[in-house]
Amino acid sequence: EEKAKKELHKSLSDLQKQQESKHHEMTSANRQLKMEREVHQQELQNVKIKHEQNSQELMKLLKQEKKDAEAQIRMLKMELVEEKNIVKAQCRQLEKIKVECDKLTEELTQNEEENIKLRQKYEFVKQELEEKDKQISSEDDHLRRMDEARLQFKDQLHHLEMEQESILTMIGSEIDAACEVLSRDSAEKFKVIQS
């Protein structure tokens, strides 16, 4: 019994030593776990702070970009309104030019018709003069009177030729004026409309 009792005391002592050793290990493990938990919490806190800073910087950047985009949109709208006004003004100017061109075209047509009439009159007088010349050459008795008539018709013919030349010159001047009106600043006027 004494021997068994000693062995039990020894076993109890060994168990107590093991218990103390395990307690120290547990205490050390708890301390290590606590330190690791604190480090992990600190790292998590740092991550949260950095994330918050990044979020604030991103929001600030987004606000600035939104502000810049809104300013650019306002500027583009103003430019669009200005361009529309310019186009409207150019369209009105183009309409005026078209009206003036139609007017000049009508005048040119009238002048061409008058020129045709003058040409017909000229041909008629020329033919009449030729007939008179034939009559003068075939009628010796009325030579003097027909010679005077021939001179008179020649004067009329010369007058008609001068009148025709004057009308042609006037038509040419009106055509030149019309071309000058239509070509004046045409590159700038039609550039915006073409765009």
Automatic annotation (TrEMBL):
Residues 1-26 have a biased composition (Basic and acidic residues). InterPro entries: CEP128. One of its GO terms (cellular component) is centriole. Residues 1-33 are annotated as: Disordered. This is Centrosomal protein of 128 kDa.
